[in-house]
What does this fold into?
Amino acid sequence: MMNPTTSTGYTGVFKSGKKFRAEIQINRKNKHLGSYNTAKEAALAFDRAVVKRKLPSSRRNFPDGLPLDDKDYDALMNPKKKRKRNSNNTTEYNGVTKRGERYQARLYFDGKDRNLGRHDTAKEAALAYDLAVTQHKLSSSRLNFPNGVPSNDEDYDELMNPTKKRRLQSDNTAGYNGVFKRGTMFQAKIKIGPQTKSLGAYGTAKEAALAFDRAIIQHKRPSSN
It folds into this structure.
C-alpha cells in the first residue's frame, strides 16, 4: 500500500542521502528500523515491524507479502542468492570493496558509515561485515553468510579455526600471526578497526601467539585476522 505523504511511495520509508530509512511510530514515538540500499528493502523492514508488534495489516506496504512475480523477489527474500551491491562494490560480497591489494569492510546504518577495517581477502572482510550486522541487530537479509560459512567451503578451516596457521604480515618474522620479534622479546598486536592494539611483550613467540588468539576471541574478530 503506497503512502502519498512520503516521497518514496512506501509507508514508513524516507530517503536519507543515498540510503532509505525505515521508521515506525509506536505510542507517538518514532522507532528507527535501520537504513537500506533500496526503498523496497526499507518497506519490507517496516512491514516486519508491523507484524512483530501485531499492528493492523492495513499499515503494511505489502499486506499479502512481496508478490512472487516481483522483479526483486529473489534478491530480497532469498538471502542465499546474490544481492544487489553498491555501485562502488567491486567484490561479490555485501559491504566489501577492494582497496589496492586489500579489502575494505564498511557498514552503513543509522545515518553513519562505519569503517570495519581492511582485510587480506574479500571473504575475511565479508565476515567482519556480517559480525557488525549481527552485533548491531540489523536485518539478516544484509548478511553475506546468513547461516555462517559452509563447512565445505575451501577456506573454512583457515577462516574459522584460530589454531591453524594464518597468513602473516610482511614484517612478521616470528612465525605467528600478530606476533613480532622485538629484541629478545616477542610483541603481540591486534588490529581493531583502524587502530592497532598492543597485547604486551612475551618471552616466547608461542606465548605472544596465545595472547593474540585470546584477543581474537575477546574482540569477536574473524579467526583469520
Observations:
- The longest helix spans residues 39-52.
- Residues 68 and 74 are 9 Å apart (CA to CA).
- Confidence is low (pLDDT under 50) at residues 1-5, 80-87, 162-168.
